[in-house]
Structures are given as C-alpha cells and as structure tokens.
C-alpha cells in the first residue's frame, strides 16, 4: 500500500515531474508545463508521496471550452500497478493518443477508439545531426516566415482545419515559449503549415508540432528549424511524428 495524494501540479513540482518524465523519455518542455497551467490551472495533476516526492503525472489540458487533450501519463516504475495511474482529472471531455499496446488502459475506462489510420513513428538519434542531407528547395510560391504575432490568426485557422477544433490558446502558448522557434509556411498568402523546435525536458532538440500540406515544405521547415538550434550538432535530436 502506497501512501500518496493527488493534487494539481505547481511550478515547484517541476524537478520531480521532470524526473518522472525522464524515465519515459517524455517530450514536453519545462516551459510547456508552466504554460499549460497558466491556461488551465487544474489541467495537470501529480501524485506525491508524503515526503513530497513526485511519483506520477498526468495531463488533461483544456484546449477550449469543450475539448481537453490528455498526455504525459506516467508513474515511476517502482510505484506502478497500485492504482496510482487510475486517479484522473474529472469533468473533461477528453481525447488522447495511445500506443496500440496500451489502448486497453483507456478502453477499460470508457474511452472509445475513434481513429486508427495514423501512426506514431519515433526516432532518436545520438550524435551530431547532418542537416545538409535535407532539401532546402521550397515548391514554387511557398515562403517560410519566422513566427510573429501577426501570423497567429493564420496559424489558428490552419490548425483548426487540421485538428477539427479550435485550440488557439495552446497553439499560441506553444509558439511563444521563450526557447521555441517557429516557422510558418505561406503559399500565395495562405498558411499551408507551421512547425516549432524547442528543447525538451532532457535538453534534447525536439521538433514538433510540425504540420504542412506538402512533404517538401515539411522537409525544408525541418531542416531550417534544426539549423536554428545553436548546439543541435552536439546534442541529440528527437523527432516525434
Ligand atoms: C501507464 C501507467 C501510467 C499506468 O500507471 P499505474 O500506476 O501502473 O496504473 P494503474 O495501477 O492504475 O494501472 C492502470 C492500468 O495500466 C495497465 N498497464 C500498465 N502498464 C502497462 C503496459 N506497459 N502495457 C499495457 N497496459 C499497462 C494496467 O494493467 C492497468 O490496467 P487495468 O487496470 O485496466 O487492468 C504506467 O504504467 C506508466 O507510467 N507507463 C509508462 C508510460 C506510459 O506508457 N504511459 C502511457 C502512454 S499511452
């Protein structure tokens, strides 16, 4: 029997949350954790021992008044299978992504599988990244612009078209996190993609989100984002599709 309590995440929990996330190589950044609670103070919960040690974390952040999205669900290995993961954020219409082998965790708790047609590919690379192998040739009529607030409405509209619902606050926070660099693709004045790069909790370079209509645009965006990270050649990169 483990004595622990569950409460909303606070900024002082960051070292403990990072420690839990590191064991599962989670991809969020410290800045994202802070931004998400600014927007949704009860959107991340932590499980803590009486000593204050963080043993679990789970996010279910509201994207708008109707939809929340879950992630960062993790319990330290030594404390698993004791129902710690079963504590949840209440009163949310919640979506999430799950790997196929874990989907039972969610279907057993009432989630329905709504989408099977896409896959998550994860690449990790240790060593200097050679971005020279990537193309820098944009298709005719496409330009990549460095993020500015002026492009937010274009990005929101594009993101909504892809995702199917409005998540403007989360999109804005992502673009505005201090260590984040974002590029926006336009074709004849219409937004056709956007992509961000940032440092994740284990100081690796993380590209994402990155969305685009044309794979060729995505490749150039990917190359230019990586090249904007000052020490990407020393650190290891991580790409999450
Ligand atoms: C998933 C996780 C958070 C569950 O935490 P926990 O404290 O062990 O949770 P509980 O004791 O409440 O058990 C929850 C369920 O997870 C299931 N589970 C745990 N690990 C699993 C695994 N590797 N594969 C499939 N199911 C698993 C348990 O069987 C249990 O299912 P059931 O109650 O429906 O039979 C924990 O295993 C973990 O941190 N895993 C690594 C990170 C991860 O994979 N997160 C989920 C990404 S989709």
Automatic annotation (TrEMBL):
GO MF entries: acyltransferase activity, transferring groups other than amino-acyl groups
Superkingdom of origin: Eukaryota
Domain called N-acetyltransferase: residue spans: 4-139
Pfam families: Acetyltransf_18
Species the sequence originates in: Larinioides sclopetarius
Protein name from the UniProt record: N-acetyltransferase domain-containing protein
